[in-house]
């Protein structure tokens, strides 16, 4: 073949490939390789797989020692806390609130939960209501403080301590926004162990869909980290990323799942979601399509490990695993951090380690409730 003709044909093919990729990325609300992406050309990822298997084995331990705080100030009496919730339909937000209420009873404090209903206007109104109550402290429960920057500024000006639960990306204190502390597992660890589980369970070969809520910076960052973790294994393909706001999961997830099944069929073998609630809403569509509850796609939730997720896992109904937050423990930690703030002491700095729950290690439980923290906090508080 003449060299010029060969070059021209090569350019034509390259343009066609780029065009096909762009068309694939524009379908629906998904991003990712689309159905035109090539299959794996390697024998998986032996070195990555070995590391993933070791990490998963560690994360599945069910009786870890308590490595949280064992010293701190005695309980300050008579405090009132308002928990401003992003939406109480988010099981993680609701689970952490339950832990806060339980710890408050032990401390003798008053707690009020105000539901932001999952909308910016609702969250702003809830925070304004919280300020009007003149509480001792306010919890930012699962939403970006930027949504309520004016209310946050007012709380800071009034020297009302603010503690976040999944409010910003990193655990611990925050200067901008000004939070005494933010309670969460390390998002990079949650994302990595979720990807490690997929790589391990799939033996290095999988077609994966990621479900996220890009309206929440914490969730968006988590899904980006999940994708990076999956990309470390050559045999794992990202088929699509579905952006569905958590308040819309019940209305949008079933339709999107049906669309994904139509597009990818049996190539869709695994899913990772930033919150287990997506699989509650995916299950009916998967069942209607004739999928088996214990079969592919094998689904893992990268937070938050709510009771319905454990029920699906234990009954092997369209969810195989979750990376649960220790929601009750985090609720107790929130109040311990407030107690440190009221006592003029720094935050504890504790960050809970990641854990994986499956039917094999959950023992039929409906939450991840690690041992040791209640006795430790009661001892600290002198209760």
Summarize the structure.
The longest helix is centred in the first third of the chain and has 23 residues, at 3-25. This protein has 12 helices and 13 strands.
Would you kindly provide a written description of the structure presented here, covering whatever features stand out?
This protein is of the alpha/beta class. The chain is 43% helix and 15% strand. It has twelve helices and 13 strands. The chain has a seven-stranded mixed β-sheet, sandwiched between helices. The chain has a six-stranded mixed β-sheet with strand order 3-2-4-5-7-6, with helices on both faces. Helix 5 (149-157) links the parallel strand 4 and strand 5. Helix 2 packs across helix 6, helix 3 packs across helix 11 (327-342) and helix 4 runs parallel beside helix 5. The chain is globular. Residues 1-42 have low confidence and may be disordered.
Q: What are its keywords?
A:
12 helices; 383 residues; alpha/beta; 7-stranded mixed sheet; 43% helix; disordered N terminus; single chain; 6-stranded mixed sheet
Number of helices: 12
Query: How far from one another are the termini?
Result: 86 Å
Q: Name the helix and strand elements from N-terminus to C-terminus, one letter apiece.
A: HEHEHEHEHEEEHEHEHEHEHEHEH
Strand order of the largest sheet: 1-9-8-10-11-12-13
**Uncertain regions: pLDDT < 50 for 5+ in a row?**
1-42
Shape: globular
- Report the helical percentage: 40-55%
CA gyration radius, whole angstroms? 23 Å
The oligomeric state is single chain
Total strand segments: 13
Sheet having the most strands: 7 strands, mixed
Mean pLDDT: 89
Percent of residues in β-strands = 15-25%
**Class by SSE composition:** alpha/beta
